Amino acid sequence: SEWKRPVIAIVITFLCNVESSMLAMGEWPYMAEIDHEASASFFGYATAASKAGNAIFAFVFAIWAYKISGIKIAMLAGRCLTLAACVMYIFVEFIPSNRRWWMLACYVLFGIGFGTSPLLRSYIARVSSEENRSTAYALQNGALNVMQSIFVIADDIMQIVGPIYGTAIFTAIGINYIHIINGSIYIVAVIAWLAAWRWLLPYN
Known about the structure:
This protein is mainly alpha-helical. The chain has a single domain, classed as MFS general substrate transporter like domains (Growth Hormone, Chain: A, Up-down Bundle), CATH 1.20.1250. The protein contains 8 helices and no strands. It has helices spanning 4-25, 27-34, 40-68, 72-90, 99-114, 117-127, 130-173, 176-195. α1 (4-25) runs parallel beside α7 (130-173). The longest helix has 44 residues, at 130-173.
């Protein structure tokens, strides 16, 4: 049906933003915990490098998609980069020293991978009819708002129960647990793209 491809793009948009939001939840505390030489300034530089990679490669991926008249390869490349970055992130504690630099590399790869996100908006424009395009964009924005609402509520809950139960939870399961969840979401997103591969139309 006409809505199959826009819905796929909307679902992937939601998953991509969940990935990004979950990563942002514990970055600085985690870096400071596993590398005591890491400073707030270094974390700022790492974040800036990630944002710069995102801005530059959003442009690169857009040109790439235009040149090949489709977003399949560009999107899958971005998903694979973020998946590789997630695997690197999981193994950061096995690095004997200078872990902050390993995390910097992960942040840059995450930023580059997230540079494919604007392609989803252009894809929706390509696969939706004029009368349904505004609805498709509204649903995509709604997916973003739902994701943001979930994390706002989760953050408020953590502000209340965190001081009471947070220490016990992280002592029991470790801070890596959130990154394992994030990695699982990356894997689901990559699988979703592979499953939707045959439905992604080239640009006309």
